[in-house]
User: Fold this.
Amino acid sequence: MIEHGSGAKAESGAKAAAAASDAADDNILVVRNLHVSYATRSGSVAAVRGISFVVPRGKIVAIVGESGSGKSTTSQALIRRLASGGRIDSGSIEFEGRDLGPMSERELRSIRGGRIGFVPQDPSKSLNPLMRVGDQIAEALRLHLKLDKAAAAAEAVRILDEVGLPDPDARATQFPHELSGGMRQRVLIGIAWACNPQLVIADEPTSALDVTVQRHVLDNIDELVRRHNTSVVLVTHDLAVAADRADYVAVMSNGEIVEQGTTEQVLSAPTHEYTKKLVQSAPGLASRRLTPSVTALGEQQQSSAGKLFTRTRPAQPAGVATASGVATVAANSGADAAPAANILEVENLVKTFALRRQGGGSQVLRAVDDVSFVVPRGSTFSIVGESGSGKTTTARIAARIASADSGTVSFDGTDVTSLSGEALRQLRRRVQVVYQNPFGSLDPKMSIEKIIAEPLRAFGVGDRAHRAEVARELLEHVSLSPSLAQRRPTELSGGQRQRVAIARSLAIGPELIVLDEPVSALDVSVQEQILQLLVDLQVQFGLSYLFISHDLGVIRQISDHIAVMRSGTVLESGTAREVLSNPQHEYTRELLAAIPGQRAK
Amino acid sequence: MTQVKAWAGYLLPKLGQFLFVVVATYTLVFVLVHFLPGDPLIAALAAKGGASTVIDPAELDALRVQYGLDGTLWQQYFGHLIAAAQGDLGISIATGVPVTEMIGRAFPFSVQIASLALLFGVTSAVLITFLAYAAPWPWLRQLLLQIPPFGIAVPAFLSGLLLISVFAFTLGWLPSAGARSFDAAILPAITLALPVGALFFQVFSSAVLEAQNSPYVFTAVAKGVPPRRIFTKHLLRNALLPSITILGLLIGYLAGGTAVVETVFSRDGIGRMTVNAVLARDINVIQGVVLVVGAIYALVNLLVDVAYGFIDPRTRIGGGVPSRARLGAKK
Assistant:
């Protein structure tokens, strides 16, 4: 599988040389020592640094890496179309024995779309919004296969049928905005395969899709590969997807391939440190409930580390008792938790939105339809569902950010459904929210210290010096260096920002934190760290979590209780163990089956 | 039937907006003219006959009735409004000719150079943008992108005089003045096209260059589509969407621009007529012109809104897509 270029990668190269020799004659793509860099204002930045790999005919090769690893740059370099400022510095890309490097644009155009297909990343933006989808497929057919208009249109309909769009005749005449994300991605797959190419490059083809849709789309790709004997370069951040679909895996980090081989080799016996870490943290692959790495703050620590919070926290009669109760709950993974009071009880929530339909009239969408659940104190209650399931709306109502049409929300035994004004503001002391997007939820103009201390300032807790002290202490609790206190959010990585957001939510000493997809914008290795942090903080501060996610792999790592939502209703709920190991509802089973990484087990 | 209802639901509010703009324009001008210090009729007569003109009060009252400037302000306001709705804009104080007739006579000349200017301006903006898009070297692209801003920077009376001295006097290709023949319209149209085209270019070229980096263009490139086809099939319409919006604004710019250009080229037209009316304090003509230009401005913006519906399927009303398919898309 490997044509190794630089001596630095001798260990993986040697192993692969053997594999390469039996298939040497039948490699459709051979990449040798490829270097790609981008020109920026501060000089040239190397994005890909001397990678070599081959793609055997009819096989799927996955390139796995996290953001910034250079995997997308690699995929774009393979058709010699880099983002502006990008440049192939050296190395060769041989496609069917010919180097693409010195080819003219005209020659390249006959290869792009004709013999190398490309499935791009974001289905919502990758289709021309003003062109019917049938025409977008027909365009490729007319260019490369020289079909006339009518024949191309008919062939486009056939392709739409092949990629699994129901009612392809009508679909072909529709515009992209009239199709769902999964359907748009199928159209893009149809474009990539339209001219029966020898090679298809798929750059994160399913990352923007719901997990059940992802599975069907990947199945569709598998089928096309088998039927047309296409070779595929599958670029993905998700090791589990690679494990399920690829014959070979190349792991990229910092512009280099750190390890490559057959999927089995790489996943079962990773040799490189980075691969090991990746395999360990992939939620689909290593799914177990994370256990706290710390214990509840003891008397001693409480008086030193936690002293600031005891002051900020509102007087709480059962404060100490709760903290010890938490430890028990967490230790037992919520299975046989000691009977604790429910921190949150939600009953018969209903929330409707009026959708303005084209051509007047309106339609009522029941975003949340008769939803009830309880969150036991000190545990994590998770709601899992795909986009449009109503999980976020439910969480917002539970946190009293949005209001419900009917139903009740009780916090710590008192009805808070109709709180308003100052009473509602005081509730914010006890219920905090962490949002999905750590880039949007932090004010870029404020220093980290100011951001974390803002809730304290809002409630007039302590003086300026005291608040700064609390902020620094919180930074330590979320495993960030207090030296970051004067930095701005833009100087931090996504994972660091999310830690800051968590620190801010802790500042005022809440009892319940609503976590709305807190890790879905982060790389997998960072995801795991944040989840571990959440589990640790839960024990340290005796927190209860309402956790929202679309990812059952993540849910499995953190939940004590799970509710599965779809179309505004709770289909199933129970303890994590019940729901995950003995799902009652068909949809839950489908969700579980859709988690990538099944083959690896 | 539902189609008709859909269109009505879409158009009626826009029509309401249109009427509001016209009435508001009329009201604003009326207020400005009548609340300026001094009697408008006396000012106009003074401008006509010199500062020492003496008028008999009885004669003045008769003139007031003749020009529709009698009665209380309310009577005048509504009287003029109703008359205007019937196509009567009063009589010019300076010339004694009905304003509607004056505008009707001058209008075609202005429309001629304005639409030519729009055509020249938009075409060259699209052309330069395409050249910049297809430029093989970055420096050439930058150079091309820097040219159009000159169109705004150079004032019309300067570029107009330059064009006259080169093409009319030195080369003798085109007439320097008048409005008799079609070729007399070319130099004024070019003069007017410079700022208009430059404004359009600013919006259009940035829309194209932004769209150039969009994922759907990447898809087209990965399909093997050649650059010219990418420009015409994928970029042009997408970039026109934001550009059309400023077409409405350009109409306003054109109305102002004709005043300068028609004076420089001594052509008949709305612009020159307005300049003369202002100098003569001819409030009936001023009111009439502002009302007509305001109505055209509002009408063009109404058309832009409707055009949006045709160009962008996402805002299309009803649409030609079978509803069965649309329902299916929801599942």
